[in-house]
Amino acid sequence: MEKFVLRIKEKDLIKVRSITAENVLQFEPPFANRLQCKLKDYIDENGEEYVVQVHHSSRNVNVIPSANLQPICFYATQATVETFQNHTLRI
After folding, report:
1. Is there a smaller number of Cβ atoms within 10 Å at the N or the C end of the chain?
2. Can you tell me the distance from the alpha carbon of 75 to that of 28, in angstroms, rounded to the nearest whole number?
3. 33-75: per-residue pLDDT in tens?
4. pTM
């Protein structure tokens, strides 16, 4: 999987995803440098931060707002707490 971060306006989100999906189908990995050049017209320093994920094997493209992503420690802590809450001691 390949990831890179872009700052774009929300109104350009569909167009950015479309361009990314087209290029992923046309070219071989790595994609980040080529896509950042192709998407330069949509990059806006005042826009929101999005993470673009490209899965190499399936060629699936996800464009996710960075605000929706949590650091890995968040998920690890959440899973640990849930495990202990659901655990029953057997004697």
Report:
1. C
2. 32
3. 899 899 999 999 999 999 999 999 999 999 989 887 777 777 7
4. 0.71
